[in-house]
Amino acid sequence: MSNWNPFTPDFNPPPGIPRGYPGAINPTAPTMNPAYPHLPMDPVTNPSNRPPGAAYPYPSSNPAPGSHPPSGSPYPPSGSPYPPTGSPYPSSGSSYPPSGSPYPPSGSPYPSTGSPYPPTGSPYPPTGSPYPPTGSPYPPTGSPYPPTGSPYPPTGSSNAATNSPYPTGPTPYSHSGSSPYPNHQNNYPQSINNNNRTTGYPPGNYGKMAEYITGEGTVHPYQNFDPKLDAELLRKAMKGFGTDEKAIINVLANRSNSQRVYIAVAFKQLYGKDLIDDLKSELSGNFETVILGLMMPLNDYLAKELHRAMSGIGTREDVLIEVLCTRTNQEIWGINEAYTRLYGKSLEDDIKSDTSGHFERLLVSACNGARSESPADGERAKQTAQALYEAGALQWGTDESVFNAILVSESFQQLAYTFYEYQKLTGTTVTEAIKGEMSGDVKEGMLAIAKCVENRPFYFAEKLYKAMKVGLGTDDDTLIRVVVSRCEIDMVQIKAEYERNYEKPLVDAITGDTSGDYKRILVALVGN
User: Does the pTM of the predicted model rise above 0.70?
Assistant: First the structure.
């Protein structure tokens, strides 16, 4: 068998080898037989068959079409789409980067190694960017909300609070500067007794008032933030049998909202899976609700809460009031953008279809985010206080439209002056006037605005107290929403107001009213 030549015309192959093999192979430049390497048809193993001029171990200079390189050659045949064996480079036309390359594949939706999160085109904001998504102005192009150049200041304007619903101020315990509240130079008295409750206008105690100027959250950005490391920790906590809920709490309760968004991007990049989907599959109950709320950009979360309040049978008017009547212009614009992006329709249209009367008009006004941002004016405060008095106590019935026009269009700073002038004029507070002159949902909406003017942290402290009031069960939806939405804004002040007014630390109230991992995540968010 060792002397047979498969290229002779009278070749009869051994049993099992088809006749005519290898067919088109040029016998003058024979190549390796990859299917039958044991047969000595290779010029390398059979020197007598090597073409003239062909140096071992390479084939002739004119290899036959379709031939292969000799065994052990590091080079692929000419025109091969495959890279050489062990080559660090991708094959010709390959859409994938070589192994270890810092660059993502062409057209990949994921960012390259070392790239700032999130990837280009992602619905999530880039590092350090405020909401809404990258490239979207406040408000988005084509939006009915005030565009750039509007008389209402954009985010970052000197007339608007930066990243805070509270007006800017100089230093704590200061009586002057940019604080919007009346001071000695205004000749306002330095205290107002409002049922022994601290109010923000005019400050009866500057030490307490100063806490409300900027607001402080209990959750802060993590200093040594590494989204990939956090993604790995969360993957480990959910992998295998059982779930390590404590590890999940330790990561997510100690990262800011924007950092959690980046963790979700890193998780998908590393594991090709959606982090929120994995959390849904591993968690349950109120604990799951808190975690999923934390994972959403804040504007998206509040838009979802508004949509849920208006979906199905009935309407949660208290949710609409809490979200829309307590937020700044910038926050309202972000919520509107998120609502339209998530649900394909405007928030205003849904409000109109789900509410009516004076309550509808109040919410429509509030959801436009068009409060004045002009500096507070004492003379104007006297005029608006007189207008409120004439629309309520001085006439039979109440002209709700006047209250609506003033409470929803004036800045919170201007309303603080107006409320003081109203009390000086009538001997009663605007809050008391609203309670006596109105009823139903419109009364609750206007009370929410009035309470936020007087003392915004107390408004939310009262919401938490009522959500956990002994004997009425726990309103988990409200408890979760307030903690998730305020933990990075003013939870320090909310805690102080809760303890001051209800003589019990907020953490103790939560501990006594909840249990398990649900209790642990709330305490971690509030107690930091």
Answer: no
Other CB atoms within a 10 A radius of the CB of residue 269 amount to 22
Find out whether 69 and 76 touch, Cβ atoms under 8 Å: yes
- Using CA atoms, how far residue 365 sits from 28, 145, 460, 510, in Å, is 90, 12, 22, 35
Residue whose token pair is 């608007």: 160
pLDDT digits 0-9 by tens, 72-114: 555 555 555 555 555 555 555 554 555 555 555 555 555 555 5
**Residue among 393, 396, 319 at smallest CA distance from 355:** 319
Exposure pattern of 495-521 as b/e (b: 16+ CB <10 Å)? bbbbbebbeeebeebbbebbeebbbbb
DSSP letter string over 186-200?
A: GT--S---BTTB--S
Q: Nearest to residue 381, comparing CAs of 354, 411, 359, 353?
A: 411
User: Which residue in this structure is represented by tokens 């953490």?
Assistant: 507
How far lies 447's CA from each of 421, 429, 451, 454, 503, in Å? 18, 11, 6, 10, 24
Residue 75 has what pLDDT? Answer: 56
Structure-derived torsion over alpha carbons of residues 285, 287, 293, 294, reported in degrees to the nearest 10: -160
Residues sharing a CB contact under 8 Å with residue 398, sequence separation 6 or more, in sequence order? 391, 392, 437, 438
3-state secondary structure of 503: coil
